[in-house]
Design a protein that fits this description.
alpha/beta; Aspartate Aminotransferase, domain 2; Aspartate Aminotransferase, domain 1; 2 domains; 12 helices; 35% helix; globular; binds pyridoxal-5'-phosphate
Length: 374
């Protein structure tokens, strides 16, 4: 069978930057706990995105969790959250014993619909926080969302796990809200094998997060704990991989953009296929190229997924929205349209291989398998 084509797989730099930083850590025995790589990786990410402060954690999920804790989200609090996302966006709300209210998507970016958000504020006037996502690396309608959150005096958390490097009107995703969270999980645009970063302009809060994620150890000779702690700190080895990967982030964005554009060009004459749309004045990172099939299409997402599978090619349905997940069945869901946009996208969407290691020939193969179905 021919070599497998992946959705998105780890892609280390050709130059071997990652190994250099890891070697440095080995040579100085800064394997653990902290060290130069962690500090530098925080600094470098903060500089890259234009945030004042950053804290490196074991995962993007941990970053979202700590953002909620830093906002004092607790039992009895309501948190508005995008429905169309990966469960890791919403789970930390439950970790804090708070209550998620899921918000539907709009059709122009597939992200949180500002109209539905406004409607949610009418029903629940005092949520503790709003969490939005920049799905598949495509920036949400930030002007509208930021404005609504400001009007209601509610802090915004951006789950930018999928959108590192993407910009909206020249500003990096993850820097619009009070907190921004990034992920370096294995399938993300850059990876450390696993890891995350929390950014904020609030220096004190980021320092506090660093304290919580190292088990809340007070400055005493013995182990003194006045607060609940977490073991969420990124290791120095992992941070070394991150520093190397950050050097090739811009290159990866270019490659992902090329992949998206090749699909767009290839499918432009197939009336049934539409690419995930983007707004003007945004520069997505195109982490994944995603299509939807028109309702009238005889070819369904599952037909594409199965046909690709036969060619040893990985593809996936669009995220199943949180309001449809059994684990969140008791949660409220706010939508504007009779049929939820997120439900519709789930039913009609397919994530196509967007691996930066995929060659042009391999992508042609993917395209041909799909074109043959029409
Ligand atoms: C990957 C991802 C996360 C979680 O990141 P981890 O580092 O895997 O914990 C959160 N939200 C979204 C939208 C993601 O895609």
């Amino acid at each position: 069978m021919s070599e497998k084509i992946f959705l998105a797989s780890p892609h280390m730099s050709d130059e071997g930057y990652e190994k250099e930083y890891i070697k440095e850590a080995f040579d100085t025995n800064w394997i653990a706990p902290l060290g130069e790589n962690v500090n530098k990786f925080e600094e470098e990410i903060a500089n890259y995105v234009g945030a004042q402060n950053a804290a490196a954690l074991t995962s993007g999920t941990a970053a979202i969790h700590m953002a909620l804790k830093a906002l004092d989200v607790k039992q009895g609090d309501i948190v508005f959250c995008s429905s169309l996302t990966f469960s890791a966006t919403a789970n930390p709300i439950i970790y804090q014993n708070a209550t998620p209210v899921f918000i539907d998507s709009e059709e122009e970016t597939w992200n949180m619909d500002p109209v539905a958000l406004e409607k949610a504020f009418e029903k629940y006037p005092n949520p503790k926080a709003v969490i939005i996502v920049h799905l598949y690396g495509i920036p949400a309608k930030m002007d509208e969302i930021v404005k609504i959150c400001k009007e209601h005096n509610t802090p915004l958390i951006e789950d930018a796990a999928e959108s590192l490097g993407a910009t909206y009107k020249g500003k990096q995703t993850g820097t619009f809200g009070k907190y921004g969270a990034y992920s370096f999980n294995g399938n993300k645009i850059i990876t450390t094998s696993g890891g995350g970063m929390l950014v904020s302009d609030d220096k004190e809060k980021i320092q506090k997060v660093r304290f919580w994620i190292t088990q809340s150890r007070e400055k005493e000779r013995y182990y003194e704990h006045k607060e609940l702690g977490y073991n969420y700190r990124m290791s120095n080895i992992v941070a070394g991989i991150g520093r190397g990967q950050l050097k090739v982030l811009n290159k990866r964005i270019e490659q992902k953009t090329d992949i998206y554009n090749r699909y767009k060009e290839a499918f432009k004459d197939i009336e049934e296929i539409e690419m995930q749309p983007t707004l003007e004045n945004t520069k997505p990172n195109y982490w994944l190229s995603v299509i939807t099939l028109k309702e009238t299409s005889k070819v369904k997402p599952i037909d594409i997924i199965v046909a690709l599978e036969k060619g040893n090619i990985e593809s996936r349905p669009v995220w199943k929205p949180m309001h449809m997940q059994p684990v969140f069945e008791d949660c409220d869901f706010i939508k504007v349209k009779e049929k939820a946009v997120s439900t519709d996208l789930f039913e009609r969407g397919v994530c196509l291989p967007s691996d930066t290691k995929m060659t042009v020939e391999q992508q042609e193969k993917v395209i041909n398998v799909i074109k043959k179905l029409f």
